[in-house]
Amino acid sequence: MKEQEIISGCKQHNANAQRCLFDQYYRRSFHIAFRYLANHHDTEDVLSIAFTKIFKNIHQFENRGEGSFQKWLSTVVINEAIRFLKSKKELFFQEDQEYLTLNASLENGYDALDLEEVDQILENMPKGYRTVFNLFGIEGYSHKEIAKMLHINENTSKSQLSKARNYIIQKLKKKNSHALS
After folding, report:
1. Tally of CA atoms within 13 A in the half-sphere of 138 that contains its CB
2. pTM for this structure?
3. Are the C-beta atoms of residues 36 and 82 closer than 8 Å to each other?
4. Does some domain include residue 96?
5. How far is 92 from 90, CA to CA, in rounded Å?
6. Could you read off the pLDDT of 128-146 as tens digits, one per residue?
């Protein structure tokens, strides 16, 4: 089924269309939610809620061109992941930690990192850092949009992104120093 057929079918509560939508978008949605939650069980729980909301509210979706449905669906998943973190009181933003400057360079073989190492660093990153890093760096939201979504100050968003970047740099430096030893 084509995307528009799936959407139309889902608006009519067609089970076959709903199954097609789920099958077509589950994997991508899982990766999006997992970037925020870093836990398979929590991600599955969030996706269960997200897809229920997607099916319930699909009639509100307005097609605004190519990619608009995927963006709408991703937004539902991201919002549910953030809602989950807030409900578990696991989303906090560290204001008083000292951190390095953003000008630290990635040299000495960091470009040879494999995806698993990067994923592991992101999974272990504090949730506040990881959330802002994902929203800004991967999803493309502005600091103003992030601040509104997370109910934080725009400067807190900027600070969390800076700290996330420095966290990654520190982990890469540490990994690299162990590799050279």
Report:
1. 19
2. 0.67
3. yes
4. no
5. 6
6. 999 999 899 888 899 999 9
Contact between 38 and 22 under an 8 Å Cβ cutoff? The reply is no
| CA atoms within 13 Å, Cβ hemisphere of 178 | 6
C-alpha–C-alpha distance, residues 30 and 38, integer Å: 11
Helix, strand, coil abundance in the chain, percent, nearest 5: 75, 0, 25
Q: What single letter denotes the amino acid at residue 76?
A: V
Distance CA 101, CA 98 (A): 10
What domain count does the chain have?
2
Instruction: Tell me, yes or no, whether 141 and 175 share the same domain.
Output: yes
Pull the structure tokens for residue 62. Answer: 């307005």
Count of CA atoms in the C-beta half-sphere (13 A) of 11:
12
